[in-house]
Amino acid sequence: MTDTTTQAPQRTPLYQSHVNSDGKIVDFSGWELPIHYGSQIEEHEAVRTDAGMFDVSHMVVVDISGTDAKAWLQKLLANDVDKLKTVGKALYSPMLNERGGIIDDLIVYLMNEGETEYRIVSNAATRDKDMAQFHKVAEGFDVTLNERSELAMIAVQGPKAVEKLAQAKPSWSETLSSLKPFVGADLTDIEGQDWFVARTGYTGEDGVEVIMHSDDAPAFFELLKDNDIKPAGLGARDTLRMEAGMNLYGHDMDDEVSPYECNMGWTLALKDEREFVGREALVSKRKQSKEDNTAMKQVGLLMTSRGVLREGMEVTINQGTDNEQTGVITSGTFSPSLKNSIAIARVPTSLSEEDTVQIDLRGKGKFVDVRVLKLPFVRNGQQQFD
Questions:
Q1: Could you give the residue ranges of the DSSP H alpha helices within 233-293?
Q2: Is residue 282 located within the same domain as residue 313?
Q3: Are residues 273 and 311 in the same domain?
Q4: How far apart are the first and last CA of the chain?
Q5: Does residue 94 sit in the same domain as residue 175?
Q6: Residue 101 sits in the same domain as residue 155
Q7: What is the pLDDT along the chain (386 residues), one digit of tens a residue?
Q8: 74, part of any domain
Q9: In what order do the strands lie in the sheet with 31-36?
Q10: In this structure, are 87 and 148 located in the same domain?
């Protein structure tokens, strides 16, 4: 007999809050989360013009402690945590495998002055392989890993997000007004244990991500609603992050994709001799791809004719010439802000932003011209191209 049992989807502490708010629940990486609450477009627009909130409690939070915590992170990550000089400062980094491919992208926070305590926030879909890599690299280091599964997280995003959050939580006003981008603050003295806020997000807008104990999440969700912060689902989260040119793991990057191929070269700290997992393969493959003209990069695509660009569609460059090359769309959607279809694509590095490429939308040999753009498409509510 074959065991056909499958693991039941997990629910965040806000599951009932979503149901009560008329959220349409779907399975996302093994979690029951809302795709929308009635209108994905309205939720997208709320975040671009006002304020919205997302349940991101499925994200993985791991607290790191020990005398070797910093050294372990310097071995584990391609970016260098030595850049974190003040408590609460955050760093975005890929975590690579030995081949130089991306196991995951994550954020790490410095949590104490002694550089012996850190916090990692990583993706839910990669939780098992992330934890396996954390423990594998931790061998020989004095470091303790504590997965904080009892915590919840809500992202409050939009140009009025911080203002409305301060209205909802007046006692946070001073902390929020002084919080710079990619910096977090412990709210224990204000709210009690486990409360933490960081000026981070995944939408291309201003805003914060708030971590709290699961028991506190439903009441906080209702408080935000009462202060005109609109619940938003996975659908809006995806169109917002795509307009902002932000990668989605498993689509725009994965174990076989180099940071150079998905617009993450800026996250690589290569100027010193620090040895991190994947460095040797990363540098070697980069050099080889340049020599044999197989190097790839990430670009944005904009289509102003009818139709929608979709993941997996082939991108044709110099069609019908001796120099014809191809790339691939890694994410595609209709942009609510631009009122046209957009895509993130991986293409040969020889492609310039002045070029036009072709997409066979229906696989029938009828190609449509598509404009090449530098990412992002939209940031802070503004179109980023002419």
A1: 234-243, 279-291
A2: no
A3: no
A4: 61
A5: yes
A6: yes
A7: 445 456 789 999 999 999 999 999 999 999 999 999 999 999 999 999 999 999 999 999 999 999 999 999 999 999 999 999 999 999 999 999 999 999 999 999 999 999 999 999 999 999 999 999 999 999 999 999 999 999 999 999 999 999 999 999 999 999 999 999 999 999 999 999 999 999 999 999 999 999 999 999 999 999 999 999 999 999 999 999 999 999 999 999 999 999 999 999 999 999 999 999 999 999 999 999 999 989 999 999 999 999 999 999 999 998 888 888 999 999 999 999 999 999 999 999 989 877 889 999 988 788 999 999 999 999 999 999 99
A8: yes
A9: 10-11, 31-36, 24-28
A10: yes
Find the domain containing 366 and state its range: 295-383
Give the list of residues 6+ apart from residue 378 with CB closer than 8 angstroms, or none.
Answer: 48, 204, 243, 244, 335, 337, 338, 384
Please tell me whether the overall predicted TM-score, pTM, comes out greater than 0.90 for this model: yes
Residue 3 lies in a domain: no
Strand, helix or coil for residue 76: helix
Q: Does residue 370 lie in a domain region?
A: yes
Examine residue 376 and say whether the peptide bond preceding it is cis (omega within 30 degrees of 0). yes
